[in-house]
Design goal:
By secondary structure, this protein is mainly alpha-helical. The chain has 3 domains: 163 residues, Rossmann fold (3-Layer(aba) Sandwich), CATH 3.40.50.620; 155 residues, Rossmann fold (3-Layer(aba) Sandwich), CATH 3.40.50; 135 residues, Arc Repressor Mutant, subunit A (Orthogonal Bundle), CATH 1.10.10. It has 21 helices and 9 strands. The strands form 4 sheets. A 3-stranded antiparallel beta sheet has the order 3-4-7. Strands 1-2 form a two-stranded parallel sheet. A two-stranded antiparallel ribbon has the order 5-6. A hairpin with a 3-residue loop joins strand 5 and strand 6. Helix 17 crosses helix 19. The longest helix is centred in the C-terminal third of the chain and has 17 residues. The protein is globular. The protein binds glutamic acid (GLU). Glutamic acid (GLU) binds next to helix 6.
Length: 503
């Protein structure tokens, strides 16, 4: 009997649910379904500082909204759980110990300063920055002594200095990468947590993953993974690296140029089935070239070899065109009405907005102009209204700081938002009211509207953040944006006054 096909998606819960995750999920699901296999959802939260339960929740919610179903995962369990890496630490530590005992990994006590110095020297000599194996020369007694002394250490993978790693990618054929290009990867951090590479390999093995289908940004990591499989005495899965989604200008899909959060599309009124259909067109055409297809049709006919490697362009206008076709061709007017009500036309939406609008209402006809910013994708406003009486560059500066600060907000509610702007006003020594004007304009399209923080809370994190980004773009188009240099110095100033950035 041949091995069962088991694929997986392994998102890291470190931010809003990304369309790239949905793209990978769709192709993993289709491959598994086509081969009567299973798809697993695993949460890769080894980065304890950046992972949040809110982000995990949002990823699960967004994938479910799209209609992606997984067979095993942190929410539904399965035979090979737990499916959250932070609950599997002991498993990783045991494998790391095995690697150390067998001489395939070693403790490294090098300080951050030494590593930085080494990196600088290698860069100056035009060499690939790579750990120089300094701690490999420590004797077992020295290692013991330093460990007992409590010196902080990481565990590194021993990587050959010479030769090359060869592996096969289902779409690209044989790939070979020189070992000299591969760093002595840290596999366990000083806090005892594994890094992505170790945890990913251990889990793919223990969860019996037969096919790893992931983004091409992981190709350069694959040799480390192959080495780990070899050292641990396990056979490696079949690797397929899908092309990355791109902005219309061919750069890697980024939120500066294109909304990347799935929630953005949900909140701005796209149909999940149209979105999935569109993702299924990324680097892929159905054998019969159909453009409009259901998830089932996609899965039933899926052939991974048909994926083309040219970077697929994620184009908002094309997505809207597909969505429009769905509205007109796949739904009856009654269904459209029902879906519209489920989206934002229902009593729950109105009951949230009415209390905010009521103090400003004289007649019903005042209601829609006041609340339309909650229903449109992007409000339109003139540049002059955005800057008002302020210096345009100062407005850009404040919007940028707010954008960074808002990235840090995990629970997007009125009070958290109020406190972000309160801190901003205090740090910038500005009156809150004056500070808020450009935000009113870019979020609501007008200087007078519903209360801003409630409005932003109702609008949601993704639409609010993207409106701030849009305003920054508008400023840049009017030569009032931040230059590269200006941005760099603002970032420095920001770090001093507000702390670390999260992106
Ligand atoms: N946690 C990784 C990510 O966030 C998964 C990469 C992989 O599929 O191996 O993309």
């Amino acid at each position: 009997m041949t091995e069962q096909v088991r694929t997986r998606i392994a998102p890291s819960p470190t931010g809003p649910p990304h369309v790239g995750t949905a793209y990978m999920a769709l192709f993993n699901l289709a491959f598994a379904r086509r081969h009567e296999g299973r798809m697993i959802l695993r949460i890769e939260d080894t980065d304890q500082l950046r992972s949040t339960p809110e982000s995990e929740e949002a990823i699960l919610q967004a994938l479910s909204w799209l209609g992606i179903e997984w067979d095993e995962g942190p929410d539904c369990g399965g035979e090979y759980g737990p499916y959250r890496q932070s609950e599997r630490t002991a498993l990783y530590q045991a494998e790391v110990q095995r690697l150390i005992d067998q001489g395939h990994a070693y403790l490294c006590f090098c300080s951050a300063e030494r590593l930085e110095q080494l990196r600088k020297e290698q860069m100056a000599n035009k060499e690939t920055p790579r750990y120089d194996g300094h701690c490999l020369s420590l004797t077992p007694e020295e290692v013991e002594e330093r460990k007992n002394r409590g010196d902080p250490y990481v565990v590194r993978l021993k990587v050959p200095d010479e030769g090359e790693c060869r592996f096969t990618d289902e779409l690209r054929g044989e790939i070979s990468i020189q070992w000299s290009q591969i760093d002595h990867q840290i596999i366990q951090k000083s806090d005892g947590f594994p890094t992505y590479h170790l945890a990913n390999v251990v889990d793919d093995h223990l969860m019996k993953i037969s096919h790893v289908i992931r983004g091409e940004e992981w190709i350069s990591s694959t040799p480390k993974h192959i080495l780990l499989y070899e050292y641990l005495g396990w056979s490696a899965p079949v690797f397929t690296h899908l092309p990355l989604l791109r902005n219309p200008d061919k750069s890697k899909l980024s939120k500066r140029k294109n909304p990347t959060s799935i929630t953005y599309y949900q909140d701005s009124g796209f149909l999940p089935e149209a979105m999935l259909n569109y993702l299924g067109m990324m680097g892929y055409t159905l054998p019969d070239q159909r453009e409009i297809f259901s998830l089932n049709e996609f899965c039933e006919t899926f052939e991974i070899k048909r994926v083309s490697l040219g970077g697929p362009i994620f184009d908002l206008d094309k997505l809207k065109w597909v969505n429009g076709r769905y509205l007109r061709e796949n739904l009856t007017p009654e269904e459209v009405l029902q879906r519209l009500v489920e989206w934002k036309g229902g009593p729950s939406f109105f009951s949230q907005v009415i209390p905010l609008a009521l103090p400003r209402l004289e007649t019903f006809s005042d209601f829609f102009p006041l609340s339309q910013f909650l229903l449109n994708e992007n409000p339109l406003y003139p540049f002059d209204e955005l800057v008002g009486k302020q210096e345009p560059r100062e407005v850009a500066r404040l919007l940028k700081i707010a954008e960074w600060e808002l990235e840090k907000v995990d629970s997007w509610d009125r009070d958290s938002l109020a406190s972000v702007f309160q801190i901003l006003a205090e740090t910038e020594s500005k009156k809150l009211k004056e500070l808020l004007t450009p935000f009113f304009v870019c979020i609501t399209g007008s200087k007078v509207s519903l209360p801003l923080f409630d409005g932003m809370a109702l609008l949601g994190a993704d639409l609010s953040r993207s409106r701030i980004r849009k305003a920054l773009q508008l400023l840049a188009e009017n030569d009032a944006g931040l230059s590269k240099k200006g941005l760099k110095s603002l970032e420095k100033e920001y770090r001093q006054s507000y702390g670390k950035r999260i992106d």
